[in-house]
Amino acid sequence: MAGKRINLAELADDPLEEARVPSFVETAPRSARVEQVAANPKNTRDVHGHPEKIANIAESIRLHGQLQPCTVVTRDAFLAIFPDHTDDVGQAAFVQVTGGRRRAAVLELGLSTIDITVKNALAESRAKFISATAAENIDREDYDLIEEARAVQLLVQECGTGKGAAEQLARTPPWVTQRLNLLKLEPELHAALRAAEIPLREVRDLHKRSRDQQLAALSAWQRLVESRQQVDGKRWRGYEEEESDLAAGNGSVAGSAEKTAASRRSPVAAAIIRLGGTPAKIAQTLRAELSPEDRQTLAEELMRES
């Protein structure tokens, strides 16, 4: 009996479903339809928090094409370990592991396809998937400390211990503990850290203190920065005046040097400014920095006759 004749032209007009990739296969870079790649629900990075960076990536892709593919896992591999994220994935065939901003840039450009590499080995366990997402972000210089801390917290929850998370990230347990402690800080300190307005070294132990003490420490640091800027500004203006005087022949090098030196504050005066400038503000700063015993000792020393 003759078989049914197939019209190849009709087949060519039918849209093909996204190819299914076995869970054990790691594919070479390929293209996929953008709508078939779901965003990573476990990414703690605020992908859209810096639109200018997405714009820069979009411009690069427009000029040069997508130079680095996004790493993904298949829908089935992802939902096998995170079944509670079915709604987040929708009907997408793949779930992103890395390249959140690249995906956002492709969407911004309105492109129909995105380059991907399927690595289902990254979905062997929840911890492995989360550590792969966190590792890429942590290794990037623009990953702010709070995003980093949230990624570490998520991994600790999956691993059960800080030591386990440290092993997954190739970091030390104290490094993991330090990041977790950042999440105990007040929102105002989170904002300052994210904006790089205060360095990590200044907040390492603040999680042990009350809200008022944390905010006092932040205020003290901000006053210190402001006073430094003011002193630096005065020194720069003094330098400009010195250069102007010398250029006009209105003074000697020695005279200009004396003028510049006179504008500089003594170490004690500079320290007073850093502490707040007034007795009340100095006391507020020291209360945040010193233990009750140390404050008592300081008070006794200040009252003691020399």
TrEMBL record:
InterPro entries cross-referenced by the UniProt entry: Chromosome_partition/occlusion, HTH_ParB/Spo0J, ParB/RepB/Spo0J, ParB/Sulfiredoxin_sf, ParB_N
SMART domains: ParB
Domain ParB-like N-terminal: 30-138
GO biological process, one term: chromosome segregation
UniProt keyword list: Chromosome partition
A Gene Ontology cellular-component term: chromosome
Stretches with biased composition (Basic and acidic residues): 290-306
Chain spans, region Disordered: 232-266, 286-306
Coiled coil: none
Keyword Cytoplasm among UniProt keywords: no
GO molecular function: DNA binding
Domain of life, source organism: Bacteria
Family affiliation: Belongs to the ParB family.
PANTHER family attached to this UniProt entry: CHROMOSOME-PARTITIONING PROTEIN PARB-RELATED (PTHR33375:SF1)
Name of the protein this chain belongs to: ParB family chromosome partitioning protein
Organism listed in the record: Pseudonocardia kunmingensis
